[in-house]
Amino acid sequence: MSAVTPPPAAPRPHAGSYDPATTTAGGLAGELARLEAQAELSFDEELRVLRGLGLSSAGGPLVEIGAGSGAVTRRLRRALPGLPLVAVDIDGDLLAHARGAGAELVVADAAELPMETASAGYVLLRYVLQHLPDPAPALAEARRILRPGGRILVTEVDASCWGLADPVHPELADVHAKLAAAQQAAGGDRAIGRRLTRLLRGAGFTEVALHPFATTNDTRPTDDFAPHLGPGRLQPLLAAGVLSLREFALAVDRWNRFRADPDAWVMLLGLTAAGTAPHTAPRGGRTTEGVR
Ligand SMILES: C[S@@+](CC[C@H](N)C(=O)[O-])C[C@H]1O[C@@H](n2cnc3c(N)ncnc32)[C@H](O)[C@@H]1O
């Protein structure tokens, strides 16, 4: 039997510090499950904030940049059936999982969108900017494609105020610091929350404000928080030698203790920054060629 050489894997598109195959335990399948669980956990709260910021079925289309597998796209479709949706991602393999989400799918870099100037009513970026080495080009493109008066909606976290738990496990501080440092070394920024409003103002948006939302285990089982707090996120860091086996075992033990404790309490804090595209349109436009 002759050996068959598999074709070389296609190079991954550059997505900053985001790499679904290596940043989550279980590779791509694990990441798809994590994105789904993450959306399920907090989407209701996020939607409440987005509606409060004026998101409705009118005034679209909504362009979701960095839509990934469509976990949020599908939920937006159900919540706002009349809103035209466009899901954009640099990673065509990931975006293929958004088929059937009720959105037009576009493979593109956030920094170079194949959409006409002033053609969108809303732009949503959820957990995307934290992965970009420089968020400014993506925000400039968001501003370009928004109609004057259109809204940019950016949902993010900040590592320093992202979670509050009781009981506290200060012995895990080094582990969390290493997680943030690994993302930063790959070109991302888990502390982007504190920069959001300044980034939006710097990109020329007006009426910029920050709207936090909290998700707690008062209303959800503690296990639902596993995508954020469980050891799955840490496993690739163990494999890469960033975490020692002792640190990883400590994190697993503390998570297991936490989830078994009926009195344990956790709150995750998300941050949605919003801004309005000004009425002075940016120069330069593109056609819709390349949109599929
Ligand atoms: C953490 S995932 C979030 C996915 C989705 N927004 C969600 O909340 O489920 C980050 C996404 O940003 C995408 N991304 C990273 N850099 C990008 C870029 N330069 N242009 C477009 N998408 C990008 C990744 O491919 C990935 O799908």
Automatic annotation (TrEMBL):
Pfam families in UniProt: Methyltransf_11
Methyltransferase type domain span: 63-153
Positions with biased composition (Pro residues): 1-11
GO molecular function, one term: methyltransferase activity
GO biological process: methylation
Entry keyword set: Methyltransferase, Transferase
InterPro entries: Methyltransf_11, SAM-dependent_MTases_sf
Region Disordered, annotated ranges: 1-23
Enzyme Commission numbers on file: 2.1.1.-
Domain of life (superkingdom): Bacteria
Protein name: Class I SAM-dependent methyltransferase
